[in-house]
Amino acid sequence: ERHADDTPLEMIAVFIDVSRIEQSVNDYNRLTAIFESSQEISSASTWWADYSVSTEYFNQSDTGAIAAGLEPTKDKRYSIAEYGEMRDNAAKISEEYRIAVENEFESFKKARSGETDTFGGRTPLLSKQGEIVWTDSIGKVVLRNEDGTPRLVVAVDVFINDIIEKEAELFKYQSLFDE
User: Is the pTM of this model over 0.85?
Assistant: First the structure.
């Protein structure tokens, strides 16, 4: 079969696939540059996932890997499953942690389904050193596939252990007034 301009349809299909790859490479390079420059001005961890390239890995600044107890990688790619495991292990520690993980997971699920484009929440991770690392995250689905599923997701994680500790201290003092 041929297109209206007499180009074989097979050649058009190859062109479309190549243009998607080129766009993915351009997106990757642009986001990597933005996120690397953000490390110079912030201790927050920036990350993004291009699901058209991989559903097993995401890209992240070194800050997040270090906080999670991982060695930074040269290509800035990290396993989604490994981070999920750290989150799930934290949820097993206490009811408070379980609820926090569940709330953040539900927020992300709504963004994946298309109910909203943004997600976020306070989430504990059990780092590779066995310490709880709290993040306050906000993210957005910035590109969707034709079927509505996310193609490109970007987010920022701010590490808030110091805030959580201060809130716990304040809660202790508040309980004195409640007696």
Answer: no
pLDDT digits (tens, 9 = 90+) for 143-174: 899 999 999 898 989 888 888 888 888 888 88
DSSP string, the chain: -B-TTS-BHHHHHHHHHHHHHHHHHHHHHHHHHHHHHHHTT-SSEEEEEETTT-SSEEEE-HHHHHHTTPPPPTT-EEEHHHHHHHHHHHHTT-HHHHHHHHHHHHHHHHHHHTS-SEEEEEEEEE-TTS-EEEEEEEEEEEEE-TTS-EEEEEEEEEE-HHHHHHHHHHHHHHHHHH-
Report whether 49 contacts 153 (CB < 8 A).
Answer: yes
Backbone φ, ψ for residue 46 (5° rounding): -105, 140
Do 140 and 153 meet the contact criterion of CB atoms below 8 Å apart? yes
Instruction: Work out the mean pLDDT of the chain and round it to a whole number.
Output: 82
pLDDT digit string (tens) for 78-92?
A: 999 999 999 999 999
Sign of CA dihedral 112, 115, 118, 124: negative
Residue 73 CB coordination number (10 Å): 13
Do you know the residue count of the chain? 179
